[in-house]
TrEMBL record:
PANTHER family: KETIMINE REDUCTASE MU-CRYSTALLIN. It holds the Pfam family OCD_Mu_crystall. This is Delta(1)-pyrroline-2-carboxylate reductase family protein. It comes from Ramlibacter algicola. Gene3D superfamilies: NAD(P)-binding Rossmann-like Domain (3.40.50.720), ornithine cyclodeaminase, domain 1 (3.30.1780.10). It comes from the Bacteria. GO terms for cellular component: cytoplasm.
């Protein structure tokens, strides 16, 4: 069995290759993804047990999510992804859980954006300058050729650090104090915060693509309810999987019927392209994305 640390895991998960792997997985009828187990932990954290399999591999993602670690030296997400060969039962790979989570979440957003974003090249607004902010910055720069990014964060030092990273990649980067004010200039938007409160109220552009990835429980929220209802009435809402019906806090708190929205699988299998008008892509996470990452890591 090969054991990969965070750096080695990330190196094997090129965002474009991983976005391709996500789409390939959604077309694969052999994929099975049981419902994930989420066990509350003392102190407000959660233990996630997330299995998935196809005709060749079986994976289990075992991670903890500890919101209280935000702003400390300890990461909010810790754990591993174990990859097994289904024929022999042997462990073949151990991947770093936080690195997989960061890379595959950004790759899912990239896959959705390249199918649905009316203006895929940006400029890009990133709200939240943590691990997910960085992975989305890299994915959209690599996969969409984004050259200009604006960054908003409740922690100015984190925003400046991410802007410096963007500049090191050859991008033009600007830290902004008001995310809503930046929406007029940015047709691409990603919200990737701890989802402890509303960070985006709008209004958004008529050609906007917003990927909201921070909230993955009914009680978490990043988007104002009025903004969600505006997308429902005037644009298009797509969710990552059917599990969003009971996980998409932004949409559920807005009183919307999440079950009636198309999923990314519907988009990929129907070969739908960018639609006219604004698009909200709500991502909650799914073990299938981790299986796609395991495939990608093995192929690399």
């Amino acid at each position: 069995m090969r054991l990969l640390d965070a750096v080695a895991t990330a190196r094997r998960l090129d965002p474009v290759a991983l976005a391709d792997a996500v789409e390939a997985l959604l077309r694969d009828p052999s994929v099975q993804v049981p419902e994930r187990l989420v066990q509350p932990l003392p102190g407000g954290g959660s233990l996630f047990v997330m299995p998935a399999l196809d005709g060749r591999l079986a994976i289990t993602k075992l991670i903890t999510f500890t919101p209280a670690n935000a702003g400390t030296a300890r990461p909010a997400i810790q754990g591993d992804v174990v990859v097994f060969d289904t024929a022999t039962g042997s462990r073949v790979l151990l991947l770093d859980g936080p690195a997989v989570t960061a890379q595959r979440t950004a790759a899912v957003s990239l896959a959705a954006a390249r199918r649905l974003a009316p203006v895929p090249h940006g400029p890009l607004l990133i709200v939240g300058a943590g691990v997910q902010g960085r992975s989305h910055l890299e994915a959209f720069a690599r996969g969409h050729g984004v050259r200009e990014v604006r960054i908003a964060s409740r922690t100015p030092a984190s925003a400046r650090s991410l802007a410096e990273h963007a500049i090191s990649l050859g991008l033009h980067a600007q830290v902004v104090d008001d995310a809503d004010a930046a929406l007029a200039h940015c047709p691409l938007v990603v919200t990737c915060t701890p989802a402890s409160g509303v960070v985006l109220r709008g209004p958004v552009r008529d050609d906007a693509f917003v990927a909201a990835v921070g909230a993955f429980t009914p009680k978490m929220v990043e988007l104002d309810a009025t903004l969600c209802r505006w997308f429902d009435a005037h644009g298009r809402i797509v969710v990552d999987t059917t599990d969003a019906r009971h996980e998409a806090g932004d949409l559920l708190q807005a009183g919307l019927d999440v079950a009636r929205y198309a999923t990314l699988a519907d988009v990929v299998r129907g070969d739908e392209r960018a639609a006219a008008g604004p698009v909200l892509f709500k991502s909650c996470g799914w073990a299938g994305w981790d299986l796609a990452a395991a495939r990608c890591a093995l192929a690399a």
